[in-house]
Amino acid sequence: MEQVIERPLPKPTSADYASARLLEALVKAKLALDFLERGLTRNAAGKAFQAWRTVLAALLKLELERLKALAKTEEERRWLEERAVPRVPTTKMIPLSQMLRVLGYRDVAFITDRALNLHDYQYHGPDPDMALSKYRTREEAARAVVELVSAVVDYVERLRDKCAGCEELLGDLREEVAR
């Protein structure tokens, strides 16, 4: 796992970019589960969020040409290529997910909502009033982390043929999520 973390990402224009991002998503998902085991729920929420955002980066790369066809202006097409794929800005995750939904990724927007809720939890912690976080307790957030990690694993499994070197970590994560 350490080799994956320390390796630089290929350029977003590279054919290997999506594969590297999918592997990175699995590593972050594994870290989220490790944090949960240690009782670090807010850290786990942050890693689970990052894992999903990384899956989105891979999907955006894989579907870039189809997404650019949906864009209304040349400026939007350029933004997708130069900003969306390499960075996946948090503030643009919902519209990007909605664009992916148009391309047939029906559950991406719902999963993105869950990821953004966990992102809020990471910063605000449990909130009995649910004003700053959608999770009243650590236990609620922990269940949501496991559900989001499971969604990450499901997506990487769907894209398995695009992810070189994912099989072992994918199997390990599938077992951990099933516990």
Automatic annotation (TrEMBL):
Q: Which InterPro entries does this chain map to?
A: PaREP1
Provide the species name. Answer: Pyrobaculum calidifontis (strain DSM 21063 / JCM 11548 / VA1)
The domain of life is Archaea
Pfam families in alphabetical order: PaREP1 (PF05942)
Full protein name: PaREP1 domain containing protein
